[in-house]
Amino acid sequence: MWKEAGINPQSGRSPASNVRFARLAEQVADDLRSRLLVGDLVDATELPIEESLRSQYGVSKPTFREAMRVLEAEGLITIRRGAIGGAVVHRLEAEHVAYTLGMALAGRGVDISDVAQALQEVEPACAAACALRADRAQVVVPVLTELHEQAVAVVDNLVAVTTLSRKFHEAIVDLCGNQSLSMLAGALESLWSSHESAWANRRPEGLDIPPSERLDVLGEHRRLIDSIADGDADAARSLALRHLISSQNYPTAEWPEVLISPASVRARFIETSTGSPG
């Protein structure tokens, strides 16, 4: 009977109505997405209640909720279930790109050394871009200097100094001044940071890296800061590359062929998105 009537027994709708339902949902999602991306609906704000927002589009509740599910899958909103309900807007950041990239690479069976090699191409470019910023003395150098000083203060704690070292690298990318490069390199930094943090947390007792060696690494950070402050892009690029090759050796030597883990990618995304461990 369902077949004769041309109706899907699961949805109760005919193929034609299914197409119309999907198109309406896509149209609503397209409009809301545009409003989110141009800033009409800013980060961390709550969307109007469903009834109010749905009335603007004149669509059914199932159609509207399908549009919201599309936006949630894209990382643009979080739908809150339960008594509170509603949806919260998110501005897309490098972490969202990292999540998608990480899942894609995990699906291809890529190991973390592949990410390390990619970083050796893009992070030095970010360091050079930092050195070319006219406002580097006000915007870049103070941030890097503060992170460097914090790392020196906790050099005896492998986990703490590794965390601050990763923040230093992420800041170079974030402050390079080129949004496209920052987004691309930031996604790679996020993937590497999740790997290096896991390495530091698992090996603080079993792996002996003397504080003197850690200070040597931090000394490379200091020289990189100086080259950026001097506006020497070539030196900044060269120092960043040599430092990456050297510093990446610790976790890759310990775990030479570690595949990118979907669970780790998701845990990192949750931690950076919510501020709490995944």
Task: Give a written overview of the molecule.
- Strand 1 and strand 2 form a beta hairpin.
- Helix 2 crosses helix 4, helix 6 crosses helix 9 and helix 6 crosses helix 11.
- The relative contact order is 0.12.
- The N terminus is likely disordered.
- The chain is elongated and about 65 Å long.
- The protein contains 14 helices and two strands; from the N terminus they run H-H-H-H-E-E-H-H-H-H-H-H-H-H-H-H.
- It has a two-stranded antiparallel sheet.
- It folds into two domains: 88 residues, Arc Repressor Mutant, subunit A, CATH 1.10.10.10; 181 residues, GntR ligand-binding domain-like (Four Helix Bundle (Hemerythrin (Met), subunit A), Up-down Bundle).
- The termini are far apart.
- The protein is mostly helical.
- Helices cover 69% and strands 2% of the residues.
How do you describe this structure in short?
The protein has 278 residues and is mainly alpha-helical. It has 14 helices and two strands; from the N terminus they run ααααββαααααααααα. The longest helix has 24 residues.
Question: How is the secondary structure organized here?
Answer:
Layout: H1 2-5, H2 15-38, H3 50-55, H4 61-73, E1 77-79, E2 87-89, H5 94-107, H6 112-132, H7 136-139, H8 141-153, H9 158-174, H10 179-202, H11 211-229, H12 233-247, H13 249-254, H14 262-274
Main attributes?
disordered N terminus; elongated; 278 residues; Arc Repressor Mutant, subunit A; mainly alpha; two-stranded antiparallel ribbon; 14 helices; 2 domains; Four Helix Bundle (Hemerythrin (Met), subunit A)
